[in-house]
Amino acid sequence: MRTFLLTALLSLFLTPLMAQNQPVIPLYSGSVPNAKATKGQETNVTRPDGSTRVSQVVQPTLTVYKAAKPNGSAVIVCPGGAYAMLAMDHEGHDVARRFNEMGITAFVLKYRLPNDQTQLDKSITPLLDAQQAIRLVRQRAAEFGITPTRVGLMGFSAGGHLASTAGTHFAKPVGTTKDQTSVRPDFLMLIYPVISLSDSLMHKGSRDNLIGNNPSAEQTKLYSNELQVTAQSPPTFLVHAQDDKVVKVQNSLVFYEACLHHNVPVEMHLYPLGGHGFGMNNKTTKDNWTDRLQNWLDAGGWLK
């Protein structure tokens, strides 16, 4: 018992420190696109459990977790938070370290959250940052020891909506850049994701924050990603809990069905219990979904 408590306390205090020791690179080398001049500053809140919540992001970044023995694959991790904040630890830094155990170099994306006060078009801002993250990782692949055609994208909750948007909206990248680097993820991992912005399936906070309280039918359809899947969408891995009261499990179900319809390789793991926001640790089961993920990545050739 004492050993367990000591381990828990060490994790509580060392996790933020370990995250700080990783290289952090800016997403943009010059001015940040789609931004208004602002004096706003990023907000970081440390919760009683030691975890960090970040909001009002002005300068998006990637925190680099290079694997000790890299296998050539990379994953960009998008934390969740209803497009209002970012759960940077249990849906970000902790996950990156798990990928390192698999030999995958991971990047935690601190993306800008939709904000009319600081952005010209808040609805495209998270996607703009996600697509730029994919470009940057591919362009600096040699530096990171990865293969440009082995870059995956993972997202939790609203971060899952962002990842699924990137996985379905890559044919015509947002923004005005003339960079021709592909922004299509090579594989996609969506964990209790927001997928649909329809009235029946939406997570209201995420939808309101991204496209407003009274979005048009066109915008609602555009960002309901189950409607945007094509045969070119990347292979996808899904995890959700049936009793999720925040983001309905049907979000994962409709994306799974869309992948089936378009012959996109897809694997889904559903748990009867677990609720929302459990990160890597669904305490209601002895099964560890990251082990299922590792098997899926291995079968797909991403660990070789």
Automatic annotation (TrEMBL):
<protein>
    <submittedName>
        <fullName>Alpha/beta hydrolase</fullName>
    </submittedName>
</protein>
<dbReference type="InterPro" id="IPR049492">
    <property type="entry name" value="BD-FAE-like_dom"/>
</dbReference>
<dbReference type="InterPro" id="IPR029058">
    <property type="entry name" value="AB_hydrolase_fold"/>
</dbReference>
<keyword id="KW-0732">Signal</keyword>
<feature type="signal peptide">
    <location>
        <begin position="1"/>
        <end position="19"/>
    </location>
</feature>
<dbReference type="GO" id="GO:0016787">
    <property type="term" value="F:hydrolase activity"/>
</dbReference>
<feature type="domain" description="BD-FAE-like">
    <location>
        <begin position="69"/>
        <end position="257"/>
    </location>
</feature>
<dbReference type="Pfam" id="PF20434">
    <property type="entry name" value="BD-FAE"/>
</dbReference>
<dbReference type="InterPro" id="IPR050300">
    <property type="entry name" value="GDXG_lipolytic_enzyme"/>
</dbReference>
<keyword id="KW-0378">Hydrolase</keyword>
